[in-house]
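Need tokens for this chain, all 381 residues.
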Amino acid sequence: MGRDACWESVTFLNYTLSSYRDATLGAEVFGAEERQRMLDFSYRHWREHSPYLKGYLALTLHRAGRGAEAQQVWASVMDAAKSAPDQGTFWAPEDRGWLWYNDTIETHAFAIRALLELAPKDPQLEGLVLWLLLNKQLNHWKSTRATAEAIYALAHYFKQRGQLGQAEAAQVTIGARTQRFDFPAERYTGGGNQLVVPGAQLDGKTMARVKVTQESRGLMLATATWHFSTERLPQQERGDLLAVSRRYFRRDSQGREATLKPLGPGAQLSVGDEVEVQLSLRAKHPLEYVHLRDPRAAGLEPVSSVSQHRWDLGLCWYEEIRDSGTNFFFEALPQGEYTFKYRLRVATAGTFRVGPATVQPLYAPEHAAYSSGVVLGVAAR
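Here are the structure tokens for all 381 residues:
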């Protein structure tokens, strides 16, 4: 402290000491006066702390009876949070997340514990829990420390809400069909908790809406999926957590310059034209192990036939060129919007139907999305 440095370690040490129920523990090493100096030193640098360390500092201040300062520090953390009905409450990814006091999952889990102590009735608590559960569905946590912190935070939350070890139930209604699902607290009921409506019994007028009624307290995740086959091309893109759109452009070269002309409905191409395909991929939540597939019209051939890893837009992916289309494999897909481009050469005259581009997380396939379909006309020269 004499060199006005290492406030991260001082903050963490003081938080650890404040967590002991027996205040005499550690007193022979750090007395009350020294603890107070440490706290003053950390508070003097609170604006330079990461969100994780601000949580440590806020709880230490709260336990030391300095509630106003604790609320000031913690308010700066929550002011940067975003909330969405289907995503919960979350923050932008940490800068230099590999640092121990910057880990996104640990920070998020600790925020739950901090709010439980500082403001247990805060309405954002449920949103924090929702985001953490959704993140576990779509990603794997990088360390046992992060997993332990998340489980510890969730256990504290459910205990405080009276939901720990409680039976849960839900009722699902599709048209005239209703089914109840019970989830006993003492045993796992398996992965077959689903209501399946065979195709022959589907009625589009009455079964287009699925209603899930929760009969117990707490959070419950439910998904509804249609499995269908049709000769009709989708007229518009569909997606929720993920979304993908596709556009075609004719690429006209003039010397070293090239211009892109959008291909709208009914546009005609000629054999030999160069076409640029642009795929816009949007993700509301960070995901891992995602597959984006774009089918290719039968009369078009790829300009490049080399499959390889690529790096752009802050992403790394493997781009695979196949006879029927192009595949994009992402090990990690951060939240945001990204555009991918590749080129095709028109090789055959005719009218070609192109199925939709599809995107799907490999370990959460229910969050799939697709673009609209398209018909390409090619005239012979």
